[in-house]
Specification:
Length: 449
C-alpha cells in the first residue's frame, strides 16, 4: 500500500460519512475543516520524507486496518490500576484519557485559581479562537479523526503549584487508531508543568496512538513538558510537539522512551521572540525489535536566544534508533546561542542507529554547535568493574544507566527526576512494561468531560 492509499483511506472515510460529524463541538469542527484542506498535500510530502526509518513513516504506520472511535463511544479500562507505583506518590492535577475519551479526576476538578482545563469538546466560546489558533498546526490526519482532547489555559501571572498529569491508556481487544491532542496555552508571565504518560492495559492488541501537543508560550511564560512512554511492543505511536515561543519565554521539553513498539516522535519549535530559552532532551532504551525515531526542527527568529538539545539512545538486540536534528538560525536572529548533541550506544552487533544533526545558519553573529557520536560501552571500564567483582551484565547495566544520567538530570522538576532514575534502573533490569510502574498519584475518582 503506498502513501496515497494508506492515508487517503481515512480522507475518503470522513468525506463519505459527513453525518458522523454534524454534532461536532465548534473547536473540533474548525480543526477538522482545516485538516480536510491540508491533508492531500501532506500525503504527498510524507512520500518524500526519507529522514526517518521506514517503520516510522506515516504511510507505514497508518497502513494497517485499525478501528476508529468516530462516535466517541466510552472505552473500558481499569483506571485504578494505572495509579499504583512502588515509588512515592506524585502530587498532581490528574486527567486520564481512556482510548480517546477524557476523564478528569477530583484533583483536576478542584484546580486552583489561574488554571482552567477543559475537554476539547467543551472549550468555552471565549477561548475558541485562541484554542483554534494554537491547535491549527500538526498532523492533519490527527485533526481529521479527532473526537476529544484537552485544553489547558494558565492565566497571566499565575504559577501553577503542581504539575498537570495526563495518563493515556489503551485497553481493548480490537486494534484501534486513537487520535489525541493536548493544547497548552500559557499566558504572559505564567508557569506550568505538564506530564504525559502512555500505557497499554491490553499488551497483545495492536494500537496506534496519534498524539499532537500544541504549546503556546506567551511573553515571559515558563512551560515544561515531560513525556514518558511505557507502552507495549504491539503499540505504535506517532507523537508531535509543536510549540511557539514569545519574547523572554522558557520552554523545557524532555521525553523518555522506556517501553513500546514503534515510536516516531517529532518536535517542531519556533522561537519567535527575543531573549528566549529552549531546552530539549530525550532518552530511549530500545530492545528486541523496537524502533524509535526522534526528529527535531528548531527555528530561531528572535535575538539573544539560547537553545540546548541533548538526546541519548541505548540500542540493544535488533532494535533500531534514529535521530534527525535541524537547527535553523534565521537572518534576523542575531546573538543566538544554539547547541545540539546526540550520543548513542550500540549494545549488540545487530543494533542500528541513524544520526543526522544539522545546522542552517543565515546570520553571522551567532554561536552554534552540533555533534553526534555512536559507539559501544567502554571495554576498559567493563574490565575494571569485573576485576572488582561486579558481574559483566551488572557492569553493563550500571554503565548504561550512568550514560543516561545527564539527560535525566536536565529535568528541573526534582520529584520527577528522582522517579525517572528509578524507572530507568527498572527498565535496564528487564522489568516488563506495566501500568503498575506509572509514577503517579493514587486517584480513582474520575469524571468524563
Amino acid at each position: 500500500m503506498n502513501a496515497i492509499e494508506a492515508l487517503g483511506q481515512y480522507l475518503v472515510l470522513v468525506q463519505s460519512n459527513p453525518g458522523l460529524f454534524r454534532d461536532d463541538p465548534p473547536l473540533l469542527a474548525r480543526l477538522r475543516q482545516e485538516a480536510l484542506g491540508r491533508l492531500p498535500g501532506e500525503i504527498e510530502s510524507y512520500r518524500a520524507d526519507k529522514t526517518i526509518p521506514a517503520e516510522c513513516r506515516p504511510d507505514t504506520m497508518y497502513a494497517p486496518d485499525y478501528g476508529i472511535n468516530l462516535q466517541h463511544l466510552e472505552m473500558t479500562a481499569d483506571v485504578a490500576s494505572a495509579f499504583r507505583c512502588g515509588v512515592p506518590n506524585l502530587n498532581c492535577y490528574l486527567a486520564v484519557v481512556v482510548g480517546d475519551v477524557v476523564h478528569f479526576t477530583d484533583s483536576m476538578l478542584k484546580a486552583p485559581e489561574g488554571l482552567e482545563v477543559y475537554s476539547l469538546r467543551n472549550v468555552p466560546e471565549k477561548y475558541l479562537d485562541m484554542a483554534a489558533y494554537i491547535g491549527r498546526r500538526g498532523d492533519s490526519l490527527n485533526a481529521l479523526l479527532l473526537s476529544d482532547g484537552i485544553y489547558i489555559r494558565v492565566a497571566e501571572g499565575y504559577e501553577i503549584d503542581k504539575p498537570i498529569q495526563i495518563v493515556n491508556i489503551f485497553n481493548g481487544s480490537t486494534p484501534m487508531l486513537t487520535p489525541r491532542r493536548v493544547i497548552v496555552d500559557a499566558r504572559p508571565m505564567s508557569a506550568v508543568k505538564v506530564l504525559l504518560c502512555d500505557h497499554s492495559q491490553s499488551p497483545d492488541t495492536p494500537h496506534l496512538a496519534s498524539q499532537v501537543v500544541n504549546v503556546n508560550a506567551a511573553e515571559g511564560a515558563h512551560v515544561e513538558i515531560y513525556d514518558i512512554e511505557e507502552a507495549a511492543p504491539a503499540t505504535r505511536r506517532r507523537w508531535q510537539l509543536i510549540a511557539e515561543q514569545a519574547s523572554n519565554s522558557e520552554l523545557t521539553v524532555s521525553s523518555a522512551y522506556l517501553h513500546g513498539g514503534v515510536s516516531a516522535n517529532e518536535y517542531i519549535i519556533d522561537v519567535n521572540g527575543d531573549g528566549c530559552t529552549t531546552n530539549l532532551s530525550g532518552l530511549a532504551i530500545c530492545t528486541g525489535q523496537q524502533v524509535v525515531s526522534n526528529k527535531v526542527t528548531l527555528r530561531h527568529h528572535g535575538q539573544h536566544c539560547t537553545s540546548r538539545q541533548l538526546f541519548k539512545n541505548a540500542v540493544f538486540d535488533q532494535a533500531h534508533g534514529a535521530f534527525g536534528g535541524r537547527v535553523i538560525v534565521e537572518e534576523e536572529a542575531c546573538h543566538t546561542d544554539a547547541a545540539q548533541t546526540n550520543r548513542n550506544i550500540l549494545a549488540s552487533p545487530d543494533a542500528r542507529m541513524d544520526a543526522s544533526p544539522q545546522l542552517e545558519i543565515y546570520c553571522d553573529e551567532v554561536k552554534a554547535s552540533h555533534g553526534a557520536t555512536t559507539g559501544q560501552l567502554d571495554e576498559r571500564a567493563l574490565f575494571y568493574m569485573q576485576s572488582r567483582g561486579i558481574p559483566r551484565d551488572e557492569a553493563r547495566r550500571m554503565l548504561t544507566q550512568a550514560f543516561m544520567t545527564d539527560v535525566i538530570d536536565n529535568i528541573g522538576y526534582e520529584v520527577l527526576r528522582q522517579r525517572l532514575h528509578v524507572l530507568v534502573e527498572k527498565r535496564l533490569n528487564g522489568d516488563a512494561a506495566s501500568c503498575s510502574t506509572c509514577a503517579t498519584a493514587c486517584h480513582s475518582n474520575t469524571t468524563e468531560q
